[in-house]
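Next comes a single protein record:
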Amino acid sequence: MSIQQMLANLTEWGYSQKSIAEEVGTSQPNIHRALKGSKVSYTIGKAIENLHRAALEARSAA
């Protein structure tokens, strides 16, 4: 799954771009650009992946 798809899922699940940015340690404009297909650094990409995994697990447990 791509970073863009993970971010789309997170926003569908109620996360704002700002809250995603705060969780992963970047700015909201960077998240917006990533949603539109721009590349992100490895570190930010892994943080998005971890946030997506945690959110998915939380949704599964609910």
Remarks:
- The chain has one domain: 3-61.
- The radius of gyration is 11 Å.
